[in-house]
Structures are given as structure tokens and as C-alpha cells.
Amino acid sequence: MGELTVETRESGDVTLVYPAGFINAHTVRTFEGEIQKALDRRCYKIVLNCAGLQYIASAGLGAIMGAIEEIRGNGGDIRISELNETVLNIFEILGFHHLYRIFPSEMEAILSFRGEGEGRA
Amino acid sequence: MRARSGTPARKARTRRPAKPALVLIVPSETVFLSLVRDVTKRMAEEAGFDAATADSLALAVDEATTNVLEHAYRGATDRTVELRIEDRGESFRVDVIDDGASVNPRAVPRVDLRRYASERRKGGLGVHLMGKIMDSVTFRRTGGCNVCCLVRRKTPAPRG
Predict the structure, then answer these.
(1) Which of A30, A31, A38 lies closest to A119 in space, CA to CA?
(2) ipTM surpassing 0.90, yes or no?
């Protein structure tokens, strides 16, 4: 049984990533792979819509941390939306809410990129 | 007539955990991490923690188990990990036990999140999370096994 699915789509120059299920040491490669595909396309404006994300362990948080240097180095960012209480709590425990901008809705996260210049190199 | 060792009367006088431990033995494969998480969460809720705290406790145990798979067993999938989950009345305790390579989690450098990405570090977040969630995280090597003992009090300890 698959414990994680990750879909992506584009909204203008913003890549929307939808992880659904669990991100832990068992599933993290799937998640990393989708982030890497965006980077391979030189898409550096990424919204992680976590509406379907039930749980994330340090493996998943490490995957985000592993990509952020390259993303921000190319003028982009990972912005996060629609965290459930469980995942938000994990973000807060680790202090991720100080490092990443978190939005209640996907649209707010997308709009936060508008007017920030080119994020796709 | 005097109560003898092992009788109910004797047991009643002996200080014991509030409930017997639940012992879970899982193969050393990451696919079982979600089972570890589900069982831990259920036990934490049975012990009286709210759902959000139970989720956190399950995360800490997931992290401890992941550490065993990655470091003590180095990805080998033919071993087992034993978890002893106990409601000890005033606290909730989980021992994560493996018979893999001796590891020293204290050797893991402290995580500074603001520098983590630029240092291109891999790992270390799990131990950091465990320390943030639990009141006590201890490691010992005994009888050829690594034992990671995670304890969370039911009433918050005063933080210095």
C-alpha cells in the first residue's frame, strides 16, 4: 500500500507540490524526487500544499532543508500552505516556522511570490 | 497466613508500573514505521495524552526507530527492533532496543537550524526532535544491545 503520493502542477511560474499521506524514512525518496524534478526544470518558486499531508518526520524536513539552499540561491523559495495541526506542531517544535513562510491557503502562498522577480532561472 | 512472593497480596504491595508494557517487535524495514507510529500514538492516548501530544510522542518513537534502521543496522532488513511501551502512571516510557552496531548519538553535532542548510548537513534532525519532544532521552549499551529510552512525564516538568 502506498503511504505517500505526490502530485505537482504549475500555476504561472509557481510549481505546486501536493504530498498526500506520510513523509517518513520509508516514503521520503518519493517526495525528494518530486522536488528534484522541479529543480531540474529550473523551477524555484515552489508552494508545498500540505492539505493532504498527515504526518512528516525528520526525513521529510531534511529533504526540504536539503533543497532550500539551491532554491533560494536561484531567487526562489519554498512556501508552505494548509498545514494540519499535527504537521504545524512538528514545524513549530523544530522551529521551521521561523525559516519558512506558512500560509493558510494555497492562493495566499502563490500570491506571495507575485512581484518578487524572476524565480525561474 | 503471610503472603508469599508472587501472590496478589505481595504484588499489591510492590511498586509496579500502572499497566504492563506493550512489547512490539518489528522487522528492520522502514515500511513498518507507520505501524510503530500508530501503536505508539494509540498507547499514548490510552495513557491520557491528548491527540496532539500523542502525535508528537509517536514522532519521537518513529525517529528513534529510524535511527536504529539507518545507523545501528545500516539498512539491513533481516533484523528486528523491539519496542517496549509503558504507561508508568506518572510518565510514558518507550524503550527502543536493537542488537546492531554500537552507536553514539551524543556524537551527533547539535543542530543549528539557521546554519543547517548552508552546512549541507544530512541527519541530526531526528535526535534534535526527540530531545524537543521528550523530557528525557537516554542511550545505553547493555548485553550487546542498544537501548534508547524515551520518557515523557504526564505533567509538564518546570523548565529552567
Answers:
(1) A38
(2) no
Residue A120 lies in a domain: no
A10-48 as b/e, with b when 16 or more CB fall inside 10 Å?
A: eeeebbbbbbbbbbbbbbbebbbebbeebbeeebbbbbb
Domain that holds residue A62: 4-111
Q: What CATH number was assigned to the domain covering residues B21-153?
A: 3.30.565.10
Q: Which residues of chain A have pLDDT under 70?
A: 1-2, 115, 117-121
- Rounded CA-CA distance B11/A95 in Å is 46
Chain B residues whose C-beta sits inside 8 Å of any chain A C-beta: 30-31, 33-34, 37, 52, 55-56, 59, 62-63, 66, 69-70, 113-114, 116-118, 120, 122-123, 125-126, 128-129, 132-133
Percent of chain B past pLDDT 90, that is, above it, reads: 68
Q: Which residues lie across from A21 on neighbouring strands?
A: A4, A53
CA distance B78 to B75: 9
Global pTM exceeds 0.90: no
